[in-house]
Fold:
Amino acid sequence: MLNRTAENVARATPEPLARKVRGISDKGLAWLFISPTILLLLAINIFPLFWAIYLSFTNFRANRPNEVVKNLGFANYQRILGDQDIWIAMQTTAHFVFWTILLQTLIGFTLAWLIDRKFRGHAFWTTIILVPMMLSPAVVGNFWRFLYEPQIGLFAYAISFVTRIPPTDIQMLSNVSLAPWSIIIVDTWMWTPYVMLICLAGLRSIPEYIYEAAEVDRASNWRQFWSITLPMALPFIMLAVLFRGIENFKMFDMVNLLTGGGPGSTTEVASITLKRQAFESWRTGYSSAFAIILFVAVFGLANIYVKALNKVKQR
Amino acid sequence: MSLTTAHSVVAPSGTAKGIAGTIIVAYALISIVPLLWIFATSFKTPPDSIAYPPKIVFQPSIEGYCNLFTTRTRQTPEYINSLGPATGFCDETVRKRNMVIAGPSNFLPRFVNSLIIAFGSTFCAVFLGTLSAYGFSRFKVPLADDLLFFILSTRFMPPIAVAIPIYLMYRELGLSDTALGMILLYTAVNVSLAVWLLKGFIDEIPREYEEAAMIDGYTRLQAFWRTVLPQATTGIAATAIFCLIFAWNEYAFAALLTSGTAQTAPPFIPTIIGEGGQDWPAVAAGTTIFLVPILVFTILLRKQLLRGITFGAVRK
Structure:
């Protein structure tokens, strides 16, 4: 009886009044809750971004803060687009991104497909496979230098054991043609589990009855894979490719510790070039312009990709 | 034909399962070898660690751990003999190599920095993230989708590109090489993940609970505190662990913005050197100590892993 009275009173009270009585309005509360995050991001991300845009039009050098800063207009951007080293770095990045994505998608999807056979103990082994991707790329990348060491390193030893090539000839980090592959191997080792996990979610999202219907229609296993499994898992595969693509485009830590961009500049991906220009040559204005170009490239690619992803999902 | 037989038709056969299982186990074992090798190397003596062929069976030693936590100086055998008896296992091991312990190394302070910065930034990111996620989940926020995309997009920026202006800004503000500066920076990076993950978790809590609480006379704030938060604990814990792992593993900002007092473990570990190059057992010991917490967290998190790594996009 009493409950019903309370309910009636609550219902009879006009909404705005009720809110006022209860203290802060919902709108006020919403802003109170959201604004600290937005303010922090404006201070730590957006303000520096605008500063970088300003610097990209100047000849400022962070190691000479007292020098007169000259406005250069678009000169930095023009120089970057004509700079041979920058183009080589972009090619190195593209090579790295292409091969890591390809290998990780192929291996990751295959592993997910096999795990989806649900053999005994699959949950345990899945957890074991996932471990490398949770670790620090820097700390683990650093240790791979030891594994790659010719002769005393385990990797070189294992390869020479299988191929009978003398272990001193397996110079993964100092051979110009092997070094780009050394970073691809470590990245694939670390991040294949990531692609695998997302693909597994995709495979598990396919309802069983579709396969049952295909069985009734006597579709071959091959046919089922190409017309059910792959198309239905595709949005997930593309999501994994999107995340890995962005991450590897800005790859820094693992490569910096493993090869430092060397030998020479054979593994100098965009982020390493940026670091060398900004924090070793101290060309702050020039490197800011390069940073802005990289931003635009990442956002552009991500946007195109997200649109494609939505199209696939709508199908 | 009954439904149960139709079901068994699509289930993989025994042989298929066997082959799949064998390949997966083989992959898992091979992929875990580098980690086992780190662990094994941390218990080798320096000569054993660089032996050819690589030693799989060896006499375990904690010399790597001794070297990790101490700095040592080389001395003449006469000087070492003139010293009193060794005061511990490490002392004894070091003396066998004609050296004496000179003092503690920087590893412990760097490790403590990592702890302070990781926990500090995780707390801030989860606190801000929970509030924002609730705001986005329950209220009509103008331009909500744009704001959420803006929050996520900050995560796409290449760290080195962000580091250039941050470096200058921190130099002006006196935040370079301070724990506070690193906490602020990691909070800003992690808050995007926290908002996206927590919004998903809070979306899953039915609104009816709060509405009931508010009819009972709770204010919106009380309803949030007493009904939503307790139900979001699992989500908050999972989010916190993801933030913790990111801050713990982060290298690029730490390497560029810290050099001394606030340096974390990831940029420090690669700089551990012995006489004539990298002291691999000590590096392996530092790496092992650094990785163990993450291994524990990975096992705790395995059910939420998928959600965390896709910003809540895949929920399963």
